[in-house]
């Protein structure tokens, strides 16, 4: 069992839950014209005024706003724009669920793939396991993989399609 990785996941999970309970909805509801333009508007700051504060041309501000919308703006530029608008730019990763759930889902994909291959071989030899036994082995393998978090957990494998085994 890799306690350090498990503890790191739990720490990140608690940090995200306690600090960003509404962050996901804010990310999903980003302003139609981007954050820069929305904040400029809310501050009553024109593109020309932002350009002056940044020491660039008004056309450059328009280009930055377009790059923000298409996702090609740099983090450094967002930080610079933020400073010019008296804001702090921040970025991060918002997990889809918790980090513990992400690892567990991946462990289940790997375990299902492995067990399916083994069971397929056993079926060919007329030694297929009962469904209850398959489920018991699956749960045990998922726990083992999630606890150990081996480096190979995130390797791309041939067949990791999700199967309905419930």
Topology summary:
Elements: H1 3-19, H2 23-28, H3 35-43, H4 47-54, H5 58-70, H6 75-84, H7 99-124, H8 131-148
Listing every helix as H and every strand as E from the N terminus to the C terminus, the arrangement reads: HHHHHHHH
Q: Unreliable stretches, pLDDT < 50, 5 or more residues?
A: 158-166
Overall structural class, as computed from helix and strand content, comes to mainly alpha
Oligomer designation: single chain
Any idea what the shape is? elongated
What is the mean pLDDT? 84
By DSSP (H or I, 4+ residues per run), the number of helices equals: 8
- The beta-strand count equals 0
Distance between the termini: 26 Å
What radius of gyration results from the CA coordinates? 24 Å
Keywords:
166 residues; mainly alpha; disordered C terminus; 64% helix; single chain
Q: Can you walk through the features of this model?
A:
- The chain is elongated and about 75 Å long.
- Helix content is 64%, strand content 0%.
- The protein has helices at residues 3-19, 23-28, 35-43, 47-54, 58-70, 75-84, 99-124, 131-148.
- With 166 residues, it is an all-alpha fold.
- The longest helix has 26 residues, at 99-124.
- The protein contains eight helices and no strands.
Structure described in brief:
The protein has 166 residues and is mainly alpha-helical. The protein has helices at 3-19, 23-28, 35-43, 47-54, 58-70, 75-84, 99-124, 131-148. Helices cover 64% and strands 0% of the residues.
